[in-house]
């Protein structure tokens, strides 16, 4: 036991004071590692040693206290980052140390796949305690993942106004402005002075988050304009709101796409924007923090979709990960087999000119890389709404011209390389022609796949890289070996 105590003291040295989420994660991982080590040390003790369970319990309590104190000082977003970065068992251990009153804020921050795993471990009482203090719009974000009886129980504690807001937000589609708007905002009339507005603001405990403007409404809550906070501060207090408010402001409708709202925030550098209904009545607002979440989620989905993946826990069980990844890998296997079959049809050609086997991978690879550049550009342009029927023709011609010029330049270099290692200028010309043609194929597929999927309302990124690789490999082999068969044999 003395040796064990010495090891435990050694483990407690060099404690960290975390300065950011990454350092906090490392600190949590170190504490968990120590805890696992203690468990191993205790389990190695002789079976008859009655002190071992006591030591284990004491050390567990000490580590839990230290870990709980660390979590208490972290922002909910940092705790969410830590939970997303831990294996499931460690994640659950950390989650058990989070105070119930903070659990709701953290559930809002974590990724969907983590939220589902955390909620699955909580009973109804814990879930009610975690969500009962959330705002209506925040509760609406969690509602799809919560058991219906929990939502019903939480609704009992809401006021009639809050219950109506919750019902309204939940009625909108998931990817709409209505689903991400909040109701906390300041509104005033246009016939009062700025001094009256300032006195009104001073009576508030605090301004709603990201308040850069005050909305001006009439007696029926119809939006008339907005009063910027900076104008309010520097203007004469005796000035009426109507004289300094902005009437030409961007407004959003609750059924607008959230992605379109995000594009507007990016384009106009907005911090907040009002949401109005069909008759112009102010019903909510969208703030930049919600827009950042929309942009991040869209970016993550796009990156995963290009590889044919769906969002998954990085520590998910192997069978679950296989179910997620296998479909497009099987598709890729079929496409690769097709490319190999095409190459096998030219067995005699490769048998006569063996060096073709080494050069054809260059043609296929360059075509794939060039096509991927085109595809990435198109997917990004579609995501921000820059492509429409008026400019798509010009864009297609431009990409084909770029592929032609790059193909000629790159093909010339490839031709010199082929000539240098084979001593045959005719092989260099075939190499150059194949490069140009395959780059044109890559450009066509890089545009055709995302544009076609977008035309039919599908995610333009899903499986795009797999289809592109199939086209450039298959056509690259066919073009290069076909030209070699025609002109070199």
UniProtKB/TrEMBL annotation:
Coiled-coil residues are none
Entry superkingdom: Bacteria
Query: Which InterPro entries does the UniProt entry name for this protein?
Result: CBS_dom (IPR000644), CBS_dom_sf (IPR046342), Mg_transptr_MgtE_intracell_dom (IPR006668), MgtE_N_sf (IPR038076), MgtE_transporter (IPR006669), SLC41_membr_dom (IPR006667), SLC41_membr_dom_sf (IPR036739)
Q: Indicate, by first and last residue, each region the UniProt record lists as having compositional bias (Basic and acidic residues).
A: 10-20
Q: How does it sit in the membrane?
A: Multi-pass membrane protein
Which NCBIfam families does this chain map to? Answer: mgtE
State the name under which the record lists this protein. Answer: Magnesium transporter MgtE
Record gene name: mgtE
